[in-house]
Write a structure and sequence with these properties.
The chain is built from ten helices and 13 strands. The protein is α/β, with parallel strands linked by helices. Strand 4, helix 4 and strand 5 form a beta-alpha-beta unit. It is globular, with a radius of gyration of 18 Å. It binds coenzyme A. Coenzyme A (COA) binds next to helix 2, helix 6, helix 7 and strand 12. Coenzyme A binds next to helix 2, helix 6, helix 7 and strand 12.
Length: 324
């Protein structure tokens, strides 16, 4: 019997309308376009309007992915949504999106793996499809990270943005996702976190209760090292050589981290999709936004091999190697 693969049949994305450039940031925090761009590659980010939620962006991205795949929402068996900024504590944002799409009845849940959320969600959906339980899945990565930024803290506020991306995955005899890897090490929790919550309690100091805290330099070092071994492991799991890869579609946190991974794979930067300049770090939104950009701009073509990878708070790290 032929094996069942999960194939991406459509992609979509959504960004808030408002763009905030590094020059805009200079006006209210002690920073500069030069500092931000040299350290991170970021030029601008999109910021959600008041009242605009993760679910709103996720819904738009999902509609576009479904249209691209030619799939009706009612055909979906599964929705998995990666986010660390859900609209509500519950129901999950996946459930909220499901209802708006009219996909009521299928399984729907969120995955919180911080910036690795979308790649984790993709790995989970891949397993559902390979098991035969699911034929058509919608996988979303969506965030409104600027909701938990302290705009006075220059170490973090310059790094993040809002956005969403989505893919439709369908069962197919043709590849498809070859391999996915998922890892976490909660021992690193305090290097990148938001230390409040329902059970631990919310603090009420203005602007300090629900903000991202990060030890940037330490995160940088662990990210580079971890991604090095992750890409090796993924190639091995797929039985492939780096030379067989057409594109690297990395998490868009920092151009220097991306360049280090490309170098490790001996890939030229011409084979790397870079959107960090335009979107900054959109956490779970980052990889599917970059993928949709790559598809719609005609860079990524059917039949090409793509390596997706992400690293984030937890720490978590995850990858997927697939034929598009
Ligand atoms: N504008 C201007 N100066 C800033 C600044 C800003 N936005 N943020 C920090 N600085 C200052 C620091 O205060 C420090 O000043 P000092 O030397 O007087 O103490 C100086 O710049 C250098 O800071 P440092 O932390 O050494 O810079 P860096 O080269 O490590 O770059 C990051 C900082 C955050 C850009 C970098 O460490 C990074 O990208 N880390 C990974 C973060 C990440 O990707 N997180 C998400 C993972 S999913």
């Amino acid at each position: 019997m032929a094996s069942t693969y999960a194939r991406i049949t459509g992609t979509g994305s959504a960004l808030p309308e408002r763009v905030m450039t590094n020059f805009d940031l200079e006006k209210f925090v002690e920073t500069s376009d030069e500092w931000i761009h040299t350290r991170t590659g970021i030029r601008q980010r999109h910021v959600a309007a008041e009242g605009e939620t993760t679910g709103d962006l996720a819904f738009l991205a999902a509609e576009r992915a479904l249209a691209a795949a030619g799939v009706q929402a009612s055909e979906l068996d599964l929705i998995v949504l990666g986010t660390t900024t859900p609209d509500l504590i519950f129901p999950s944002t996946a459930c909220l999106v499901q209802a708006r799409l009219g996909a009521n009845g299928c399984a729907a849940f969120d995955v919180n793996a911080a910036c690795s959320g979308f790649v984790y969600a993709l790995g989970v959906a891949d397993k559902f499809i390979r098991s035969g339980q699911t034929k058509k899945a919608l996988v979303i990565g969506a965030e409104t990270l600027t909701r938990m930024i302290d705009w006075k803290e220059r170490e973090t506020c310059v790094l993040f943005g809002d956005g969403a991306g989505a893919v439709v995955l369908e069962a197919s005899d043709e590849p498809g996702i070859y391999a996915t890897c998922m890892h976490a090490d909660g021992g690193y929790k305090e290097l990148l976190w938001n230390p409040v919550g329902v059970s631990a309690g919310f603090r009420d100091e203005p602007n300090h209760g629900v903000c991202i805290k990060m030890a940037g330099r330490e995160v940088f070092k662990v990210a580079v090292k971890t991604l090095d071994s992750l890409v090796e492991q993924t190639l091995q799991a797929a039985g492939m050589q780096a030379s067989q890869l057409d594109w690297l579609i990395p998490h868009q946190a920092n151009l220097r981290i991306i360049e280090a991974t490309a170098k490790r794979l001996d890939m030229s930067m011409d084979q790397v999709i870079v959107t960090v300049d335009k979107h900054a770090n959109t956490s779970s939104g980052s990889v599917p936004l970059a993928l949709d950009y790559a598809v719609r701009s005609g860079k990524v073509q059917r039949g090409q091999n793509l390596l997706l990878e992400a690293f984030g708070g937890g720490f978590t790290w995850a990858s997927a190697l697939l034929r598009y």
